[in-house]
Amino acid sequence: MRTVDTPTPPHGTGRPAPERPAGSAETTGALRLPPGALVPVPTPPPLPLIRQPHGAPPPIVAVLLIGPAGAGKTSVARYWADTRRAPTAHISLDDVREWVRAGFADPRAGWTDRSEAQYRLARRTCGFAARNYLANGISCVLDDAVFPDRPVVGLGGWKRHVGPGLLPVVLLPGLEAVLARNALRSGTRRLADEEVARIHGRMAGWYGSGLPILDNTHHDVATTARMLDEVVSRAIASPPAW
User: Fold this and answer.
1) N or C: which end of the chain has fewer CB within 10 A?
2) How many other C-beta atoms lie within 10 A of the C-beta of residue 165?
3) Cα–Cα distance between 92 and 142 in angstroms, integer?
4) E strand spans, the chain
């Protein structure tokens, strides 16, 4: 029994190939089929909607948690990422900066050209990682001590690296709380009290900037993370202009 070959549409045309006259060199000799339209591919039924136990999962977001040393950025960001109802990555700038071992620019030695270069490299690396996570459906929370008096280098740089949808949130407890928390830190992440006070004073410039500011002076990590979740939810529902 001979197989009947149906005409194959030329690539990209979406129309049947023209029928060749009987007896031509390329004819198959099979019975000629009457002309007709392409048979549409049946649309499969939609998959059943699988609802989350506690409602729809949160949307994919990229949050930048800003604050001075000792504000609790890393602890809050990690807890927030751990407890969200959607895949979320925590990308810490300090962690990435400390990937450099030999030749690491210790922040306790002051801000130098080398520390500036390592900071910029770490920020680009964090931004690249955040974009990759977001492209694969995973939200991100980043943390960094971004200064309001350097908007192009700080906040503007993060937006360039991560994208315009970045949501900055300032974590700014009182000075006494910051000094007490900094005293509990160790290694290169513990700064002198004078440096912590100077950074905290510069961070006050975020007031009046339009960015949401969380004062977690009297709140633990879990409570602050819930406050952050509320701020992010409001920003998604009504994106602020910053």
Assistant:
1) N
2) 12
3) 6
4) 62-66, 88-92, 139-144, 167-171, 213-214
CA dihedral 107, 108, 113, 118 (to 10 degrees): -20
Percent of the chain with pLDDT over 70: 75
Q: Which residue matches tokens 């009046």?
A: 208
> In the numeric block, which tokens belong to residue 171?
């974590």
- For domain 62-237, give the fold: Rossmann fold (3.40.50)
Give the other-Cβ count within 10 Å of 178's Cβ.
24
Helix, strand or coil, per DSSP, at residue 213: strand
DSSP notation for 38-95: PPPPPPPPPPPP---TTSSPPPP-EEEEE--TTS-HHHHHHHHHHH-SS-EEEEEHHH
CA distance 193 to 191: 6
State pLDDT tens for residues 57-74. Answer: 778 999 999 999 999 999
Q: Give domain limits for the chain.
A: 62-237
From 144, 172, 166, select the one nearest 236 (Cα to Cα).
166
Look at strands 88-92 and 62-66 and give their pairing.
unpaired
Hey, what are 167's tokens?
């949501």
Q: What angle do CA 217, 220, 224 make, to 5 degrees?
A: 80
pTM: 0.74
9 or 193: which carries more pLDDT confidence? 193
**Numbers of helices and strands, H then E, in the chain:** 7, 5
What confidence tens digit (pLDDT) does each residue in 107-131 have? 778 788 999 899 999 999 999 999 9
122 phi/psi in degrees, rounded to 5:
-65, -40
